[in-house]
Specification:
Two copies of one chain form a homodimer.
Chain A (H helix, E strand, L loop, with lengths): L3 H8 L3 H8 L7 H14 L5 H8 L4 E6 L5 H16 L3 E6 L4 H13 L4 E4 L7 H8 L4 E4 L10 E5 L1 H13 L5 E5 L5 H16 L9 E3 L4 H13 L6 E4 L2 H13 L9 E5 L13 E4 L2 H16 L7 E4 L1 E3 L16
Parallel strand pairs in A: 1-2, 1-3, 3-4, 4-5, 5-11, 6-7, 6-8, 8-9, 9-10
Antiparallel strand pairs in A: 10-12
Chain A binds a DNA duplex through helix 2 and helix 4.
Chain lengths: 338, 338
DNA sequence: ATCCTCCGTGTAATCGATTCCACGGGCTCA
DNA sequence: TGAGCCCGTGGAATCGATTACACGGAGGAT
């Protein structure tokens, strides 16, 4: 592959001049510029990003470590992150932690070794020493969706409290009283926070959240399945199950179907995170929708601010309830017949 | 960030010795090794991958350019690719082309600029000059899922011919005769191939595939929606719609629902690509399943073979039909009551 | 005792870019 | 006319690693 030397030789100038042309430095004569451009063209030359990064100490690359690529929420996030980053002149390298702290650390380490300019993380656990060290050492970093408390890193996330309250009000209005939740790992903020919001909302309606109605999931479909089976085996099973993410909702649906039960007739189901498929499940699933695209874009902007020396800002956007029919009959649409 | 010089200084040896320890070169004395290791530890030193890549001319990184990250098929592919690559000691950088040739070229160019060791592509179109040049110039490359005919690049893909034949037989047995397809872009191999397989299978049953029953989609949900609306507006609409990928099936479902029709009572639906959600749609969707994980792993193995100087092999794996109930009553399960 | 070999180590070249500094020539201004 | 400046350019240092080569000393073979 042609290097800057080849271009310089072909154009009959020094490498310094070639570099100046490539970086549109003002003081290059039109003739020299033309000759260099011709040589670049003739050789099909492209600057070596590796060499450039070594010299300039910047890679114009962002690392994004997410908890699970197979989760549509995170793929949508990844997509919006890449889009915004591209618009700002950065590339993105995605690392999939698969909800495993080891794997998360592996990716963070690899990304750091590559000297990415900044790191976007949705932490799988309460904080690996590696990540804390990196943050302390001054690596530009921003948390998205989930975060680690007590670290001085901006956080971009959705606040689901109000939406959870709306959900509980909706369920209460439909006459449901025994409400269960499948939570995420307590080590994640979204894991504990959603349970807290749920518990608090229940309290407002003078409802309790017994320990048996809390499923301990890990944001994966299988754990949703297992938690739901445990609920169904209870002497008094819940009337509605609220899954703290879409994959556990999928698992819950599997379990419910395996038991020959119908939604919402026998048991209701709601989920945190809305995805296009929820419109077409049987029945359509009531969910709490996050402004995912906005989240991804805001996170990139915060990170790039930090990288380029501007003060980064934490951002919190509201999530909102999308009522469908998986928890019982919604208010009848005008014109529809029962 | 500490460099190899700092380590050398702290350990009281030369950078050469540090490098030897780091690369487990045999001729280093135990004492020197111990001192270096201690220094590495003390400084929290990590080798700069950028510098290393510049010198060794290899990045131990693979590029993966896929057509659409939001498509669950491709995210599953991406995941298996990353897993296998990691097992072989490579990282993966994903580029999302979003079915846009320009964007595809953007990512290929960026990846090439970063001097990735090899490229895995699922081409969005019939072949950009950029990609053809890269292949000709000797960049290790492997096509996954889709490919560009007439280029000497190994292809790893699923053959859906038999499964499509099975699907048509299944539909025929259910009494359906007017079968339509929503195809992908003709510029993609999977776009044209699936139509061909469908047409051929129809011919075996002495059925025609009129032009009006061919929808021209682009593998995105919206095009599935539009094609389906066109089908439904026909004087004699099809009895079954076969979508050439899962997103267009989602769009088709949207359109069908918008018209107040029921599946499969009013119209049947089948899809190429199977995804977990198809089990839970209303009704569960009959689909052709590809061995996605195997495909991703085989593609990485082929690419790494090519990179490391072993002869790479093209691989074709069979897809298979998964019958559910979206095209009409499946054979009754023993014990079920009508 | 001498020579050869091998081992552990350091010096320095190298990868492909960017950028500081110096230099020569033409211009302006006094 | 001469001093000073700006402009275009090239030489060379530099980023952080790897690695060919040289070298001194220890040990074995003759």
């Amino acid at each position: 592959m042609a290097s800057i030397k080849d271009v310089a030789a072909r154009a009959g100038v020094s490498v310094a001049t070639v570099s100046r042309v490539l970086n549109s430095h003002p003081s290059v004569s039109p003739e020299a510029r033309a000759r260099v451009l011709a040589a670049v063209d003739g050789l099909g030359y492209r600057p070596n990003a590796v060499a450039r990064s070594l010299r300039t100490d910047q890679t114009r690359t962002l690392g994004l470590v997410i908890s699970d690529v197979l989760n549509p929420y995170f793929t949508e996030l990844a997509r919006s992150v890449e889009e915004e980053a591209r618009a700002l002149g950065y590339s993105v390298i995605i690392g999939n932690a698969d909800e495993q702290p080891d794997l998360q650390d592996h990716h963070v380490r690899t990304l750091l070794d590559r000297r990415i300019d900044g790191l976007l993380v949705s932490p799988t656990d309460g904080g690996s020493p590696l990540m804390l060290d990196a943050a302390r050492a001054g690596t530009p970093m921003v948390f998205v969706d989930r975060w680690i408390p007590g670290v001085d890193v901006p956080v971009v996330r959705a606040d689901g409290r109000a939406a959870v309250r709306d959900l509980v009000a909706h369920l209460h209005a439909l006459g449901h009283r025994r409400l269960a939740i499948i939570a995420g790992p307590a080590a994640t903020t979204t894991g504990s926070e959603r349970v807290e919001a749920f518990r608090e909302a229940l309290r407002e309606h003078r409802l309790a959240l017994p320990e048996a109605y809390i499923g301990h999931g890990d944001f994966q479909a299988d754990s949703g399945r297992r938690s739901t089976e445990r609920f169904l085996a209870l002497p008094e099973p819940p009337e509605v199950v609220f899954a703290a993410d879409n994959l556990m909702a999928l698992g819950a649906l599997d379990a419910i179907r395996a038991h020959g039960l119908r939604v919402p007739h026998d048991i209701g189901l709601a989920a945190f995170d809305d995805i296009p498929w929820f419109v077409h499940t049987d029945p359509p699933i009531t969910a709490i929708a996050q402004p995912t695209g906005e989240l991804g874009r805001a996170a990139v902007r915060a990170l790039v601010d930090r990288i380029e020396g501007r003060p980064p800002q934490s951002v919190t956007l509201p999530a909102r309830l999308v009522v469908r029919s998986s928890c019982g009959e919604a208010a009848p649409t005008p014109g529809s017949t029962p």
